[in-house]
């Protein structure tokens, strides 16, 4: 078994420490035993033997200190350490040059929209208003969903964006909350940006639930084109939705049809939800 010099020195110090400890223990016992003997000669011999063990412990301690301080340097003087062979690769591949761009172009100008489009309450709907129209900030609406029929609970559950020109009746459904009784509701149906149908009435149902605005197509056939439906509470726009009716080109822009006597939103009086659905 190969043991290096450092380990050998440590082992010697451990053995010297054990010898020091044993000398102290046996020396103490010898002196204590000699003090209790009645015979002078034996008492003197035991006490003298105990003191010898104490001096031996002191000597072992001194030797241990000397070896711990000077043992390794002296040993390395007579037994120099031999070099340890380490396997190293003979060839190390290093990258030559990686070209990096010196200048990085960063955009200096970020384009932002100067105007945000918000639908305005149309002039055509003013004639249908039955109550004072003012701003509204409390009520909330979900985006509109479009379908050709209602569920058995009177709710628009489908969400279609394209209809044939043969469609006869359209529904735009939504969920709402925090509605106040007595406010004016207006639903505006637009074709190519121009109103083709308007319905408006004072709100008299629940403050939260599901509702819809509907559009009966003239002559049971809607003109093809891109439609948009806008919902207003008072003069405040709340939500919009878009859909397309396919077919030939539109024959012309229809005349807006105000409907002040028909219900604006034929909504189901469901309990008020916490958020719009």
Structural write-up:
- The protein is an alpha+beta fold.
- It has 2 domains: 5-78; 125-259, Immunoglobulin-like (Sandwich).
- 25% of the residues lie in helices and 22% in strands.
- The chain contains 2 helices and 10 strands.
- The radius of gyration is 51 Å and the shape is elongated.
- The two termini are 82 Å apart.
- The model is unreliable at 249-255 and 259-277 (pLDDT under 50).
Biggest sheet: strand arrangement: 3-9-8-5-6-10
Outline the low-pLDDT stretches: 249-255, 259-277
Mean pLDDT: 77
Q: Structural class given helices, strands, pairing? A: alpha+beta
**CATH architecture level-2 label of the largest domain:** Sandwich
* Count of domain modules: 2
Number of extended strands: 10
Order of helices and strands: HHEEEEEEEEEE
N-end to C-end Cα span:
82 Å
- DSSP helix count? 2
Strand content: 15-25%
Short description:
The chain contains two helices and ten strands.
SSE layout and pairings?
Blueprint (H helix, E strand, L loop, with lengths): L4 H31 L4 H39 L61 E2 L3 E3 L14 E2 L5 E9 L6 E8 L2 E9 L6 E8 L8 E9 L2 E10 L12 E2 L18
Parallel strand pairs: 3-9, 6-10
Antiparallel strand pairs: 1-4, 2-4, 4-7, 5-6, 5-8, 8-9
């Amino acid at each position: 078994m190969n043991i290096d010099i450092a380990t050998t020195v440590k082992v010697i110090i451990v053995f010297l420490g054990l010898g020091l400890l044993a000398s102290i223990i046996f020396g103490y016992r010898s002196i204590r035993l000699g003090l209790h003997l009645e015979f002078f000669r034996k008492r003197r011999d035991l006490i003298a033997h105990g003191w010898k063990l104490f001096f031996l412990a002191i000597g072992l301690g001194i030797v241990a200190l000397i070896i711990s301080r000077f043992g390794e340097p002296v040993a390395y003087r007579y037994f120099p350490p031999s070099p340890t062979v380490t396997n190293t690769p003979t060839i190390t591949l290093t990258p030559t040059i990686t070209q990096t761009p010196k200048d990085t172009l960063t955009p200096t100008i970020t384009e932002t929209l100067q105007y945000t489009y918000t639908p305005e309450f149309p002039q055509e709907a003013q004639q249908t208003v039955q109550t004072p129209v003012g701003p509204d900030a409390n009520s909330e609406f979900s985006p509109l969903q479009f379908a050709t029929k209602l569920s058995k609970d009177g709710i628009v559950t489908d969400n279609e964006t394209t209809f044939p020109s043969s469609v006869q009746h359209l529904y735009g459904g939504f969920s709402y909350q925090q509605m106040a009784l007595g406010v004016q509701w207006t639903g505006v149906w637009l074709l190519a940006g121009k109103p083709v149908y308007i319905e408006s009435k004072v709100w008299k149902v629940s403050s939260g639930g599901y509702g819809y605005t509907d559009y009966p197509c003239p002559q049971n056939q809607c003109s093809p084109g891109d439609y948009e439906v806008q919902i207003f509470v008072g003069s405040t726009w709340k939500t919009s939705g878009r859909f397309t009716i396919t077919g030939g080109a539109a024959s012309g822009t229809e005349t807006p049809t105000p409907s002040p006597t028909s219900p604006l939103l034929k909504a189901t009086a469901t309990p008020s939800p916490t958020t719009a659905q």
